[in-house]
Amino acid sequence: MSSQAQVIKTRLPSPPPSAEALLKAVHDAVENLKAKDVVEIDVRGKSTVTDHLVIASGTSTRHVKSIADEVVRFAKQLDVMPLGVEGEREAEWVLVDLGDVVVHVMLPRVREFYALERLWTVGDQHPDADETVGGAEGRR
Questions:
Q1: pLDDT at 119
Q2: CATH assignment at residue 69
Q3: Is 81 a domain residue?
Q4: What is the mean pLDDT of residues 105-119?
């Protein structure tokens, strides 16, 4: 008794949607389900994994999962299948990898703890942006 191996056939849309079109779909999806504090971070030049991060908060684990599901649904309307979806079971932090765009949907306490916005924007601020810390007095 031998069983046939199942082959999963995947196909890419031709041509694939632009990163901007994918970002618009993601923003429409998170807006549709009223995600909180949506932030987009351009990580081109900082990461070889993706070009854009979108970080959003949900009010409960059910809300977090629903937002992530909506992102997947909107992406599929563009004929884009997620490369991966992680964290759906606990739904405190769900990651949706759409290739050029990676979406993080998190509970506020989880978002605050991991502080992805700070992690990915370190070095983006000009050194003279905050004169009170190490400013003119610190240089004398």
A1: 86
A2: 3.30.460.10
A3: yes
A4: 94
